[in-house]
Amino acid sequence: MFALVDCNNFFVSCEKVFRPDLEERPIVVLSNNDSCVIARSNEAKLLGIPMGAPLFEIRHLIKAYNIETLSCNFELYSDISRRIMNVLQSLQKNVEIYSIDEAFLELDATINWAEEGDKIHHQILKYTGIPTSIGFGPTKTLAKLATSHAKTLGSSYYIDHTPPYHKFLKATSISKIWGVGAKLTKSFKQHGICNAYDLMTADPSWVRRNYNIVAERIVRELNGFSCLPLTLVQEQKKSLQLTRSFPHPIRDKENLKQIAARFGMRLGFKLRELSQKTSALTVYTQHSFSGDQSLFFQQHTVVLADSTNTTSVIIQQVQEIIENFFSPNTDYQKIGIIATDLREENLPHKHALFDSSKALSNKPNVDKVMDEINKRFGLGTIHPLSCAQSTEWVNKSHNKSPAYTTNWTNLVQVKAQ
Ligand SMILES: [Mg+2]
C-alpha cells in the first residue's frame, strides 16, 4: 500500500507555527518581490482569492476583508520541510520526498490505514506544528487522489478501484488525477472520459494507442496495478539555477557584476552542499534599451577547463561574461545564472591541457571556512568583497517573517509575566 503525506496550505501553516495570532484569519503568502499569491489559508480560499493572483488585482479584497499578506520566506519553509521529512523517516523505512510539502510512503498492505494516518498526522503536528492530509491507496495515483479527498473529509482517506469507491471516482473530475494536465483533460473529455471512473474503465491499449505509455500507466494505476515504484534515492541534480527580477531596472555594470558575484557565491555554496561540481556556467539577462518598451533576452555560456565548486572561480567566470557582454544605456530587468554539466565532487577532473587546479588548491579551505560560518550564522554573514553591498536590488519583501529556525538572532522571544 502507498500513502501520500501532504502538508495543508504548507507556506501558510509554516507562518502560523510562530504566529498563533494568525489562526483563523485570511492569509496569503506572496511570491518573490511580493508579486503574486503562492499560498492561501482556508479562510482566504473561501473569500475567493485565486492561486497565482497578482497582488494589484486583489488589493480591494485585502482591504475589505483585512487579509494578512506575507512575503515568502523559503529559508523557513525548507527548514520546516526538512524537519517533517525527518519525522517521516523516523516512522517509516520507505519514504520518497516528492516535493517541499509532499512525501510518498510504501507500507505493508495489511496495516490499518486509519490508525497509521492518525499516527503520522499527530507525530508531524507534535514535532513541527504543521497539519497534514494523508491519502492511502494500492498505487501512488490512487493515494494521491485520496489525499485531495482527505483534505476535505478529514486527516486521512483511502481509495481503491473496488465497487465501494466507484461512486466517489465518478464524482472526481479527471483533471484532479495526478498526471492528467489541462491538455489531456480536454482530449479525454472529447472522447467522453470525464471522471476518474471513466478513465479507470477505459481500455488501456486504446489509451496507449491514442496517447502514450504514460497515460496507459495512469489507467493501470487507477485499476490498482502499481506501475510507479517509490523513488528512494533522489536523482542527482543536472543543473542549478538562480534568477532574480529587479524591482528597478539596473544600468550600472559594476552593480550587475556585484549581483552576479552574489549569485556565484550562492551557487558555490549550494554545489558544495550537494557535493557536486559544475563544468559550464551560463549567464542570461532580460533587458530593454533606453526608451524602448520591448524586452530582449541575452545568454552567454562559458565551458570551464576543470569542473569546479570554488566560489572565487565561479564569481570570476560570471563577472567576466558580464564584463564582455554588458551594453551601456540598457535597462537590465532580470538576471539568471545556471550551472550545468554537474558531476560528483570526488570524480576525477576532466583533464585540461593547462591544469590550473594547483594554483587554486588553497581555495577549498577558504570556502570550507566560509561555509561553516555561513551555515552557523546565516548565508551572507561572510562573503567575498566582490558581492553586492547595496540592497537596492534585493527583493521587495514588505512583510517577511524572521528565519525563526535557522538564525540564532531570529529566535522567538518568550516573556513570562
Ligand atoms: Mg500541500
Description of the structure:
Among the domains are: 146 residues, 2-Layer Sandwich (Alpha-Beta Plaits); 138 residues, DNA polymerase, Y-family, little finger domain (Dna Ligase, domain 1, 2-Layer Sandwich). Helix content is 37%, strand content 21%. The chain starts with a strand and ends in a 40-residue tail after the last helix. With 417 residues, the protein is an alpha+beta fold. The protein is built from 14 helices and 13 strands. The strands form three sheets. Strands 5-6-1-7-8 form a five-stranded mixed sheet. About 1% of the residues have low confidence. A hairpin with a 6-residue loop joins strand 2 and strand 3. Bound molecules: magnesium ion.
Q: Which structural class matches the secondary elements?
A: alpha+beta
Query: What strand line-up does the widest sheet have?
Result: 5-6-1-7-8
CATH architecture of one domain: 2-Layer Sandwich
Query: Strand share of the residues?
Result: 15-25%
**Helical content class:** 25-40%
Write out the distinct hetero groups bound to the structure. magnesium ion
Main beta-sheet annotation: 5 strands, mixed
**What ranges have pLDDT less than 50 throughout 5 or more consecutive residues?**
357-361
> What's the CATH topology name of one domain?
Alpha-Beta Plaits
Average pLDDT confidence is: 88
Count of helices?
A: 14
Distance between the termini: 51 Å
Radius of gyration: 25 Å
Tell me, what's the shape? globular
Kindly report the name of the CATH homologous superfamily of one domain: Reverse transcriptase/Diguanylate cyclase domain
Run of helices and strands = EHEEHHEHEEHEHEHHHHHEHEEHEEH
CATH secondary-structure class of one domain: Alpha Beta
Number of strands: 13
